[in-house]
Amino acid sequence: MKAGRGAALLAAVAASALALAGCGGGDAESDPNVLRLWHYESPDSAMGVAWDAAIKEFEKTHPGVEVEFEEKGFEQIQKTASMVLNSDDAPDIMEYNKGNATAGQLSSQGLLADLTAEVRERGWDKLISPNVAVTAKYDDKGVMGGDKWFGVPNYAEYVMVYYNKELFEKHGVEVPATMAEFTEALDAFVAKGVTPLTNAGAEYMAHQFVYQHALSRADRTWIDNLQRYTGPVSFTDPAWTHGATTFQEWVEKGYVDKNTVGQKAEEAGVAFMKGEYPMMFSGSWWFGRVNAESKFDWGTFVWPEAKFTLGSSGNLWVVPESSENKELAYDFINITLQKHIQNQLGNAGGIPIAADPAAITDEKSKQLIADFNELAEGDKLAYYPDWPVAGFYDALVAQTQRIMNGEDPKEALSTLQTTYEDGLPE
C-alpha cells in the first residue's frame, strides 16, 4: 500500500471511529446505574427480539439500573472496534464478531476482559458445547480454540439456501437435493429469464459463495490450517482455485447478476424478501426477518451434498477491559442464556444453544435448528473465510469483486495469499 493511501485510510478510519463513539451522545464517564450496551441486530431479527426481552428482564431484576442500548452497524463496529475500545467511549458490553481477525485480535491487544473465571463460576461452560465454544476462546496470540474465554455466544448460526416456494412452483423448478439437481435448478431459472440467486458483491455474500465452493474440495485439516495456523496454506491449491473459478462461472452463466458487484447485503436480502429472486444463500441471522417480512411461502435447505458449510457459534458478547460495570455486563450475559430467553430466541427464528427443545413450537424454526444440529454433530461447520487474519474481510470483498468483474482468479487468489501471510501472527 502506498504511503498516501495508507495515511488517507487511517484518517478515514479514525474519523469513522470518532463518529461511532460520538453518535450515542452523552458523556463517557462511567455510571454505576447505567449499562451501556451495543449490538447490531435488527429489532425484528431473532436475536433482536430475544435481547430486547433480556434488556427488559435485566432492568426488572436490577432496580434503578438503566440499559442504555445503541444499535450499531456490523461494518461500523468491524472497522473501528479497536480504536473505540482504546478510548473512553467504550460501552460496558457489546456484540462482536468471532474469529482471529476480530475478537481474537482485540483479546491479544488486551482490550477485552478475560471471562474465564466468570464462565466457570456461572456455569456457562456447561451450557455451551465444545464445538460452539471454540470461537469464544483464544490463546495469547489471539488464535481461536485457546484456553481463555474472551467472549460468550448465546446462539449459533450457519449459512443455508433460502428459497421462494412460489417462484419455484411458478417456473416448474424442483427443490434440489443433490449438487447436480441444484445446477439443473439454476439453469432452469436462467432459461426462464430469471436470475436465481440474490447477491452482495460489496459485502460478505459473494465471497461466501467462493468459500462454499472451495469447501467441496476441502477437509478438516485444510480448514484448521486456514483458521488456526496448524499447517501451510495455499490460495492457489485445488480447493481455492475451484472456489474462485466456479463462482466466476456462476456469474458468467447468469446464476448471479454481475451488476450486484457493488451491492450491499441489506439490499440483497431485501430484494429476496420482496420476491425478486428465487433464492438467497446466506446466514441464519436473516431467518427472523425473512419470516417477518416476506409475503410469500418460503423454506430453507442446506447446500446440497455439503461436506462442510459456513457456520459456527453466533457472534459474541464481549466485555471491554475498560468497562467499570463488568458485573452488570456479566449479569446481562447470564440472562441471555436463561431457558426462557433461549426459547424465545428459538421461536423467533434463531438457533439457541441452551433452549428446551420441546418449547420450540414454530415448524420452520424446528427445521432450522435440526439442520444446524446435524451439521454440528457431523463436524461440518467450517467457520467463515474472513476470520483468519486482520484485514482479510476487506481483502476478500475486493478480490471477489475482481472475480465477478471477469479478472483472472489466479491474480485475485495471489493477492489473498499475500494478505493472509502478512497478517499471520509472529
From TrEMBL:
Keyword Signal among record annotations: yes
Write down the superkingdom of origin.
Answer: Bacteria
Tell me the leader sequence span.
1-21
Q: Which UniProt keywords apply?
A: Signal
PROSITE patterns per record: PROKAR_LIPOPROTEIN (PS51257)
* InterPro entries associated with the record: Bact_solute-bd_prot1, SBP
Please state what the protein is called. Answer: ABC transporter substrate-binding protein
Q: Which organism is it from?
A: Actinomadura sediminis
